[in-house]
Amino acid sequence: MNLDVLQSGTTCTIRVKGPLKMGSTLDQFEDAVRAALGSDHPFLVLNLEAMPMIDSSGIGAIVSALQQSKKLGGDTKLVSPSPFAVRVLKMVHLLSLFSIYENEADALAACGT
């Protein structure tokens, strides 16, 4: 897995490229979220367009990112989750927790940036 991390203002965009699953890929993602939230970027935009699959650990990490960002007065937005990711999040009744956008520009605008 590969991550692109872009910080601007109070927002951090994390582009997930590859599966988000237990192991080093999950550690990379969690480190990026921690770094963003720890450097005054309470709004997270998670671009999941290039994430073909997610396991239960990945779901937990995304939900944790949402909870942590909200504690700091921010939010976590999802951009273009794959059909698989949408199905999985629906199945575990978590999809409704997130705002979902077709592109990063719309998600960033919703964050006020």
Q: What structural class is derived from the secondary structure elements?
A: alpha/beta
- Total of DSSP H or I helical runs spanning 4+ residues: 4
- In sequence order, what are the helices and strands, one letter per element? EEHEHEHEH
Number of domain units: 1
Helicity range of the residues?
40-55%
Name given to the CATH architecture:
2-Layer Sandwich
Stretches where pLDDT is under 50 for at least 5 consecutive residues are none
- Provide the CATH topology: Transcription Regulator spoIIAA
Strand content: 25-35%
CATH structural class:
Alpha Beta
Quote the distance from N terminus to C terminus: 27 Å
**Largest sheet, spatial ordering of strands:** 1-2-3-4-5
Mean pLDDT: 94
Form type? globular
Q: Give me the CATH superfamily.
A: STAS domain
Integer-rounded radius of gyration = 12 Å
